[in-house]
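In the design runs reported in the main text, the only information available to the sequence generator was the tokenized backbone. The following block is the verbatim input for one such run; it is reproduced so that readers can re-run the procedure and compare outputs position by position.
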């Protein structure tokens, strides 16, 4: 394996919010992550690009402590996650938001109840009035305040994605993981969701790891792209930097 391709020349200005060193994970004889390194900077949208089965989900599961790697170190918001007790890990997870491919909204709850649920579950010390104000604020940010009393079944695919995003933001996480945020959406709606992801960073100063194959979404959202290949960070750079690479392992994603 050749050395990682580094495109561009930029400075790291603040402590990274996620730092991964020499991560190694295999299942049986199948090596999924091999000496994988990654840094997510504050207020950065980092896209992890990789073919199907390249280990993107395994990587995210390692970062949030759902899978224990065989070797390596992961620091999230300054915490070495494998040194944390279960309750400390759970506390750290409240600072992490997730936008799942499936949206994972509760079908039997109204939109308000869907957004209230994470605040109650994590026992956020908020009054009823503060909870209602927070719900309205995030719904306004995704442009769907009028859906507050609707049921998820009444929403279009794009609206459901926006509500799922609002639900992730209701806890004001410091880092958010977007799993294929535009999958199954038409190109126009995909572009709207990608633009919203960008707006979330600006409004909430949030850092994000985005897993996506949708290059239109990648182009809009990515401050930086990391290409995961054969378990390693094969290349990294901006969309434009990687797009103009001559390396076929890189260009195949852009063509
Ligand atoms: N719990 C597990 N046990 C055994 N193998 C696993 C497990 N989880 C993932 N794998 C394997 O690890 C590899 C990487 O899987 P992963 O789901 O991370 O890929 P991915 O890049 O997210 O793919 P996709 O883009 O299709 O979602 C796959 O070969 C998968 O079969």
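Verbatim output:
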């Amino acid at each position: 394996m050749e050395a990682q391709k580094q495109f561009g020349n930029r400075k790291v200005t603040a402590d990274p919010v996620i730092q991964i060193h020499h991560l190694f994970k295999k299942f049986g004889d199948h090596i999924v992550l091999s000496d994988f390194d990654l840094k997510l900077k504050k207020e950065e949208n980092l896209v992890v690009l990789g073919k199907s089965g390249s280990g993107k989900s395994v990587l995210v599961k390692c970062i949030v402590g759902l899978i224990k790697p065989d070797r390596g170190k992961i620091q999230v918001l300054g915490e070495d996650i494998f040194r944390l007790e279960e309750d400390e890990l759970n506390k750290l997870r409240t600072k992490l938001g997730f936008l799942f491919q499936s949206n994972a909204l509760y079908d039997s709850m109204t939109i308000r109840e869907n957004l209230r649920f994470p605040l109650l579950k994590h026992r956020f010390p908020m009054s009823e009035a503060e909870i209602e104000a927070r719900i309205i604020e995030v719904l306004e940010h995704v442009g769907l305040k009028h859906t507050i009393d609707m049921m998820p079944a009444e929403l279009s695919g794009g609206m459901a994605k926006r509500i799922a995003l609002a639900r992730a933001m209701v806890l004001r996480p410091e880092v958010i993981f977007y799993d294929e945020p535009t999958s199954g959406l038409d190109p126009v709606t995909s572009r709207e969701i990608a633009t919203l992801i960008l707006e979330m960073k600006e409004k909430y100063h949030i850092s994000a790891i985005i897993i996506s194959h949708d290059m239109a979404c990648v182009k809009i959202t990515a401050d930086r792209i990391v290409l995961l290949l054969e378990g390693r960070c094969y290349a990294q750079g901006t969309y434009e930097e990687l797009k103009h690479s001559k390396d076929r392992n890189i260009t195949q994603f852009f063509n």
